[in-house]
Request: fold
Amino acid sequence: MDRRENLKVLLTGTVATGYLLTTGCSPEDAKKAEEIIGSFSYGRTPEETLVNNKLMADTFFTEREKSMVSIIADIIIPKDEISGSATESGVPDFIEFMMKDYPKFQLPMRGGMMWLENLSFATFEKSFLDITAEERITLIDKIAYPDTAEPDMKFGVNYFNLMRNLTCTGFFTSQIGIKDIGYAGNRPNQWDGVPDEVLKKFNLSYDPKTLDQCLKIEDQQKIAVWDDVGNLIG
Reply:
């Protein structure tokens, strides 16, 4: 599977099997979650911060499920000569977060993993975690190509579509993935206006008010304050 051919519209497959299971987390996990949230807190209201804290503190995947997610993510985007693998970019943690932030993913994700486990046992009499790398690819090849998959692989195809889309989304929005693409586009809170050479080319310039209120990098992490009629006051 070519890692650069997997960027598609995010789709969620429907899997008819599986059940929901949530687990708690240790004090150490909660402390780690607080540290992570603290590094991504710009621009959030207190209410949003509370929601994020709860999401990061909760745990969805079991350890075995997290291992399975990591293995499949690295099958989808392995390490190569250009960049690191999906797990090196933090994809498993991203998928864990998405399970809690968008609960509709939970049933197809957990159900799909159970389906793949059953396929592994039926084919090799072992868990997906215990079979060889070559045997895993044999199973993944059955569900990775929707147009050619057998009808009885439908549930697996839906699951793998979800895993592939989440893996690609997580990877290509990570630092490793953005570097892999080679183009980051506009970065939030890091815009200091139209480049000087472009302004000079068209004989244009910013007025002092715009420069003072809108284009200072050091002020772009501040939340704007507006008056009752929509004027920016701070």
Observations:
- The mean pLDDT is 81.
